[in-house]
Specification:
Helices cover about 60% and strands about 10% of the residues. It is of the alpha/beta class. The strands form 5 sheets. A 6-stranded mixed beta sheet has the order 9-8-10-14-17-18, with helices on both faces. A 5-stranded mixed beta sheet has the order 3-2-1-4-7. Strands 11-12-13 form a 3-stranded antiparallel beta sheet. Strand 12 and strand 13 form a beta hairpin.
Amino acid sequence: MDHRYELMVRLQRLQEENMARFLRAEDLRLQDRLVEADAESEVLVRSLETQRALTDECNAADSSGLEPLEFPLGVLLNTLLERADIVESFGRNDEAESLRHQALALAKERGASELANRQRQLAGTLLEKGRINEALAQLMSVRDLFVSLGDNSAAARSAADLAQAYEWLRDFERALDQVHTTYRLLHASGVQTGTPVFNADSVADTVKQVGREVFNAPEEMQSVLEQMKRLETQVNHQGILCDLYQVEARCLVAQHRFDEARPLFDKARPMLLDYAQPALDYQYVNIKVEEENFAEGLADIEALEPVFASGVLRRKLAALLRLKAMALFALGHRQDALNIALEARRALDGFQDPDLEWKIVALEGKIRAALGDDVMALAAYDRATAVIDYLRRAPLGFRLDSLNLTNKLPVYREAISVATRVGDARACCRFMEMVKSRQLGATLSLPGGSGNPSPLAQRIDAITNQIAALDYLGEGSTSAESLVAERNELTERLRVEDPRWRTLTAPVALNLDRVLESLQSRDQAALTLFYDGADVTGALLYTGQCVCARARLAEATVAALASYAGNLGSATPEAQRFDPAATAGLDFASLIPPRLVPEALKAKSLVIIPHRITHLLPWAMLDCEGKRLFEFLPIGVLPNLTCVPLMQTNQIAAPKIMPVGSTDNRLSVISVEEECNSIGEIYAARGGLFKPAIIDQQATRKAFLDLLREKNVARTILHVACHGDFDVREPMSSGLYLSDGKVDAATLARETIRFDEVILSACSTGQRALTATGVDLVGDELLGLVGALIEAGTKSVLVSIPPTPDVPTLEFMKCYHDHRSQGIAPLAALQRTQRTMLTEGIFEPSQWAGFSMFGVS
């Protein structure tokens, strides 16, 4: 007993010392005396670990059956995490990571709830550092855990954090949805969303006073602890409300709904500590700058600068200076604006905030360009886009990728324009590549594993089967839409949680030398394009060189593009206009910078990487100097330059064929059977029939998917003749109709397909979505059947952009396979087929003009 008493005395003394250290370290951190705070925290961690060991020793020495002493693990966890933030600000990233892992390991001892709380805390740090996938994955799993535990308060905190994450990603619709979800969860916990219960500073004083009472009056410990617990809960709820008001207000500011945002900032103000309230003043200034009230905004900024120059708000000084530079630039003070932008860059030193960094550096580039210094402007844009690329390094799904890119796209436009003026074609290619199917490029560069499907993947498969069944039965459009929406959400989550992205510390960069080498090995040229309104920038890669040029499209060409796309998307299109030659202004030389045309035509073949609306064009059929473009050289299409070496295949001298055909009320049985049998006979005559054709009732979803999973098919071409559809609203629901239902793009994208070549003899399989689920695909993502097949592993895909009649399609395919079965490369076989169809003139070009090939071989 004497030994335990002695231990208790030592423990109480150590508790008092550690409380004093904790308060001292906190005060130093708030005063921005980070070196001293780090040293104090380091001592505190060691002392807390000693306190923990002493607590265990006291409990082991007790034989009285009293309630065991509890070590304040939360204090140690907070100290570890706060110290991690401090050492990270000094650039000691490995040490910070180690401290966070140590905190998580300790939290795990407290059980799932404590661990989830710490994971939620860490997610905020990950988000600030640009590790978006990891942050989202943690927040989603934490939210789900607290919901399953019925802990409304903790679930509300997690939902509020998710709202901030969606706000950061510019998905304001979902951010606001999470905000309102959090309000409901708080209401269920008895919290009113009106006037704050506490003044933030008085709460801080109360917490310190109660903490001292615990040590000065041990006999009142239980009562004081209960009081602290109630206070802590109320303060947590109020903290969540404060965050919600600010998130909702910032989302409204981003949507230029300023009058709705101001009252929400006003509601948050009394909930903040005095030292943090200038952060709201920053938001009011930001609104003035956004409203273009630059003179008044500038005066407010200058009044705030001294407050942000030191203390805890110093990490936000760079953001304030950026606003100042923006205001000065808008008022015409360009040199002053540049000086302040450079000062903002220096103010950011020591703080890891990549989202703010790119904004400051891009502003520097814009100001330098306006001052006529294109060389330095290009260097700034190079840095800004590299930071953006780092933030976008891991795919998030088309919705989040596209929304996150919306405020960054102007930077790429300006960068491409400056690079073209300077004549830096390599930089031009690099900038254009960053906004072209980044998701597909990353996925192809880092192929996924072939392990067992996760529970999430199994759930997606089950929903897909339900969608297919409803589609086959022609039932329940509302039910099908609901299932598609659920699958989209789960697919996005599967993408976010993909383990490939956890170790991706740098973006998958364009290896331009590898692209040039790949092209040169085939004497092939590649033309990548970027359309910015009526301006077009092109970069041509040929003979190991890269050149760029910029031109303005004629008004007639802009109108012709819109007219062509409008007809293609019409419910009752004019079929003769599927041939682009039928629309004046849609010739090759009118759509690209003219100086690139002669050089592009010198190669043995040409691969075009279109942009935005020009993905809808069958490029090979464009008029060029009185001929069709394919009459000069074979034409292929790709989503981006990254695909050039990745989709390169070895030439197959004697390929085999695997025909699949399915009919429904939109296709005749005779035409499908004739197509499959005719093509099969062409290859059988050369010993190249892989298996007998799977036709009609045998062509089920299961049979088709089983065929896709065949392993020994590298030398085999998969030919599919069936009805296809393109879903404008939900491109990943576009699909191929088999005898018992549809196999859609979402299903194909999750397969591992070993057929290097796939031919889709089906209507509209090459259609390209410009929007999806109401989101503008500004990142030029290739959504639909073609993108799904390429992501799944196919190296060459022949499709038709518009609908095609049965008989011309049959003749086109027979002609193509007659050439391909002889070992002629896909692009060359396509060119010979187009020449034959044009020369013989049996069918109007509009009946076969839409066939295009995605590939380089």
